[in-house]
Amino acid sequence: MLSLEHEELSFVSGISDRPLMYRTVDEVLKGCARDTPEALAMVFAHQGVRLSFAEFDRQVEWCARSLIASGLEAGERIGIWAPNCLEWVLTLFAAARAGLILVNINPAYRASELKYALRQVGCRALVYASRFKSSDYRDLLSGLMPELAHAVSGELRSRSFPELRLLIETSAAPLKGALSFAELLARGERLPAAQERIRAKDPDGIFNIQFTSGTTGLPKGASLSHFNIVNNGYFVGEGMSLSAADRVCIPVPLYHCFGMVLGVLAAMTHGAASVFPGEGFDAIAVLETIARERCTALHGVPTMFIAELEHPRFKEFDLSSLRTGIMAGSPCPIAVMRRVIQEMHMPEVTICYGMTETSPVSFQSQRGDTLERRVGSVGRVHPHVQVKIVDADGRVTRRGVGGELLTRGYSVMRGCWEEPERTREVIDAAGWMHTGDLAVIDAAGYCNIVGRVKDMIIRGGENISPREIEEFLYGHPAIFDVAVIGVPDAKYGEEVCACVRLKPDTAATEEQIRDFCRGQIAHYKVPRYVRFVDSFPLTVSGKVQKYLMREQLRRDLNLLEETHA
Question: What is the mean pLDDT of the chain?
Fold first, then answer.
């Protein structure tokens, strides 16, 4: 990985002797099935599934036929709302083969969030699990669609979701009105062979919509093309020197770019295997899977690596097959990185930085970078990507001077799904994606993320919009005003704190505020801290000065900032 940099300005442009690939997601799989048909493609340890590329390709072909036989047309949206499982990855590649647009839905979403996502993109079909952790997806769907009680399987008509026609449950005994995944696959018999439309798709076409929280308001649907994510996955894999000899352990969620792009696509673009230890993260399952499958790469956010290192049975497992992987999502303490390198046998572990809207990676540390570089920066610019740092007036800063990080190149999303105004807010006329992150690029081209222009909270790799939680909390009968702020946390990087002003002659406790949230919004958005205040510090124009509140909360809660990576 090389880069050309101006010797004074904070502008970097990544170059490589490897050109960008003009391929669809489906063509990546077809290439592996053709070139290395017997090589291991997928392992789902918790489901007892092991598939070669040829076997996986056959299952994807059948699933794509079944979706087409169910009446889904090219360009229509199919949602996937489930934890990590074979059905998730089959849906991913079958959607690509059938010319559909895959919509990733966070497994932690509750009713209001699911309702917004399905409506925003007009999902025609939804593949879902029966439940995951504390979420009963059947109950949530039944509450949103009372018509299900009288629906014919596979022929849904819902007043609340007029475009939704097909529900597909991953379990064998689905909700009334839905099909099981097995019943879906049986429909593939209606097509004697894959239709021609399956074979002719445009790499520039939108293939994937991922919801990402903005700094204000509701989540936006980042529209990503095949070209976006195939190439980003490929160059992330190049950063780890992946090959067909590698097995990548993926305990991070598939609904997020981390699991889908940095995991599955990074592996498959190099003929490597994708290994899933469980539905969700479980430290012992990860350790067992690495040892049993002889995984060579491991992905995770810092909290996952900490949980693995500190597990009481850690020393029982032979992790000597590991050499690389990715740590991303939140800052990494230097002590954790040192232990990962030494005790987990990962001398080539890399740090990545990016955002969903840029497919996602813009910076990645190199395998030969020093420990200090890996914890003190997010590495150097990715191949074929341009980045600049600008001041408040939009002028490029000099090296070492901070400002907002802007990204341009193949990786920038096609836009916010059917929201041109929001697209124009973040992508300017010159094609620069305004990230909202404050960063510094040094003389050697290494980037350090030092803060955020606005107040996005990043908790354990999850992007949380304070405004979204504030709008929900305004529905509490005792709350007059509320400001949601991110505060430092040793485990998750940041935690949610709600500063609440109560209405006159009302009362509420911290636990009552949290109880109001539980089961209504995703668990990671429920405030860890609730503080009752009489007023907020305001600017002359009446805006809440959250930075002052954040500093006061750090002192009051005796919280220390984590070391930035």
Answer: 91
For residue 512, give every residue at least 6 positions away whose Cβ sits within 8 Å of its Cβ, in sequence order, or none.
Answer: none
Number of helices and strands in the chain (H, E):
17, 30
Closest CA to 329 of 182, 491, 183, 146: 491
Query: Residues 262, 268, 273, 278: is their CA dihedral positive or negative?
Result: positive
Residues whose CB falls within 8 Å of the CB of residue 347, separated by 6 or more in sequence, listed in order: 323, 341, 367
Structure tokens at 149: 């009680």
Whole-structure pTM value? 0.84
- Return the structure tokens found at 44: 């789902």
Nearest Cα residue to 92 out of 25, 12, 37: 25
**Cα(300)–Cα(410) distance, integer angstroms:** 25
The pLDDT-based confidence of 541 (bands split at 50, 70, 90) is very low
Q: Determine the Cα–Cα distance for residues 153 and 183; give it in Å rounded to an integer.
A: 10
Q: Is 189 exposed, middle or buried (0-12, 13-18, 19+ CB in 10 A)?
A: exposed
Through-space distance between the first and last CA atoms of the chain, rounded to whole angstroms: 20
Q: Provide the pairing of β-strand 220-225 with 206-212.
A: antiparallel
Tokens (6 digits) for 328: 């991303």
As a whole number of angstroms, the distance between CA 341 and CA 188 comes to 47
363 CB burial (10 A radius; 0-12, 13-18, 19+)? buried
Closest C-alpha to 304, from 334, 280, 275, 276: 280
pLDDT of residue 7: 63
**3-class SS at 489?**
strand
Collect all residues with Cβ–Cβ distance below 8 Å to 258 and sequence separation of at least 6. 252, 299, 301, 326, 328, 329, 360, 461
Question: Please, are residues 361 and 352 in contact by the beta-carbon 8 Å criterion?
Answer: yes
Q: What value, to the nearest 5°, has the Cα angle with vertex 391 and ends 390 and 393?
A: 110
